[in-house]
Amino acid sequence: MQATRARILQILREKGEATAVELATRLGLRAVTVRHHLRVLREDGLIREVRTLRNGRGRPRIVFTLTEAANRLFPRNYEGLVRHLLPIALSSKEIRQVARSMSQEANLQGLTGQARLSRVVSFLNEKGYVARLETSGNGPTWLEIRNCPYLEVARERGELCALDSALMEELVGAPVERISCITHGDPACRYRIRSETA
Engineered SS bond to 160: which of 27, 31, 131, 154, CB 3.0-4.6 Å? Predict the structure, then answer.
């Protein structure tokens, strides 16, 4: 992102909201220059107008704030949170409940067979897994995961691998057997799907 626009987002993050004139003063730029950057940020869906201030004379001042899309650009510490939560041991039943809850996001209702598996791969890729299916004639179907989205934490806490196995079973609707695992140094997590999907 262009440096001035990134700085505008940072100021809005710190202040909560600001006008073009306030931003220009803070940045040491002319208001017309800042308005150009604000227009681009608004078109990109990163800022929105909150209200308009009128003082009777001169141009009305528009107050801007960040959108949710902009909020997602700022650093998050989910990994830190997970590291603190994971020492709380989960039973296999609780792991299964978490996996079931996570799988609900995939919207698999009514999908079976190849249509379901295709949607599973799409869902996993949306979540950063770099997934693909591998089938060979009458042989088994394999689900291959090339990226662990939480690798550093999973290396410390094996429960995440158990959670992923449970998630794969919930998603495909059939038992799976994990044959290889990225956390053990393998190039991919490979799951053999033991039967047809539901």
Answer: 154
CA-CA-CA-CA torsion for 100, 92, 117, 188, nearest 10 degrees? 130
Alpha helical stretches, state H, 72-145 = 78-85, 92-103, 113-126
- pLDDT given at position 169: 94
Same domain, 101 and 189: yes
Tokens standing for residue 59: 């141009």
Whether 197 has a pLDDT exceeding 60, the answer reads no
The radius of gyration of the chain's CA atoms, rounded to the nearest angstrom, is 24
Tokens matching residue 29: 């730029």
Give this prediction's pTM. 0.60
DSSP alpha helix (H) spans, 53-179: 68-71, 78-85, 92-103, 113-126, 151-156, 159-172
